[in-house]
Design a protein that fits this description.
The chain contains five helices and 13 strands. By secondary structure, the protein is an alpha/beta fold. The protein has a single domain (2-204), classed as Ribonuclease Z/Hydroxyacylglutathione hydrolase-like (Metallo-beta-lactamase, Chain A), CATH 3.60.15.10. The protein binds zinc ion (2 copies).
């Protein structure tokens, strides 16, 4: 499995544009999933081009939640590639020009080895991908309580790691069993997480590639 951060508040690669928001390419089991789309379509497509990610090579789009910094780039992306299925939390309506829109409310397997927590706290879903090491969770902002995200995902297997925005998450003990933590985007307590789990930390930022 490989996760390439395309869009983030900070840039890991100096030739990418940092901007408030999140998007990542999740590659696993011969599938290429665009997780969220950042806030600005031009920045999303610019960063994808710099990373040599052809929009037409993306199989599917998974949207965590309807906030602008996660869906803002979607219409620009669909302009480049509308032959995709788009997985959205149930509350997100009004997407046009995609081949198929799948609304998710309950926890569900969406493919072999790919799972959604379903819409939690009436706002957000997380993506869980099964790997040889365990489940890897990709999260947008983690607005629902982290206990709920972890508990819901764990019905699909043991959680190995988490990548994405953790917002105000501060119950650090909940990550005690995880082996990989990449807190980025809106995460407010990166320093505390780093201090508590230095051996598990992966740096974020646009351009960062995490191989699992
Ligand atoms: Zn948000
Ligand atoms: Zn956000």
């Amino acid at each position: 499995m490989q996760i390439t951060i395309i869009y983030d508040n900070t840039a890991y690669s100096s030739d990418l544009i940092p901007d408030w928001g999140f998007a990542a390419l999740v590659e696993a089991h011969d599938r290429r999933v665009l997780f969220d789309t950042g806030g600005d379509g031009a920045i999303l497509l610019n960063n994808m081009k710099k990373l040599e990610i052809d929009p037409s090579s993306v199989d599917e789009v998974f949207i965590s939640h309807p906030h602008f910094d996660h869906v803002g780039g979607l219409s620009a992306f669909l302009h480049e590639n509308h032959e995709v299925s788009v997985y959205v939390p149930d509350s997100l309506r009004g997407i046009k020009h995609a081949r198929e829109i799948r609304h998710l409310s309950e926890p569900a397997q969406i493919h072999d080895n790919f799972f959604s927590t379903g819409q939690l706290d009436q706002i957000e879903q997380a993506l869980a991908v099964q790997t040889e090491k365990g489940l890897v969770l990709v999260v947008g902002c983690s607005h629902p309580p982290m206990e709920d995200i972890l508990n819901t995902a764990s019905r699909f297997g043991n959680i190995f790691g988490i990548v994405g925005g953790l917002h105000g998450f501060n119950k650090f003990e909940l990550f005690g069993d995880l082996q990989l933590i990449c807190p980025t985007h809106c995460t407010q307590h990166i320093t505390e997480i780093q201090n508590r789990y230095p051996d598990k930390m992966e740096q974020g930022g646009a351009g960062r590639v995490i191989k699992i």
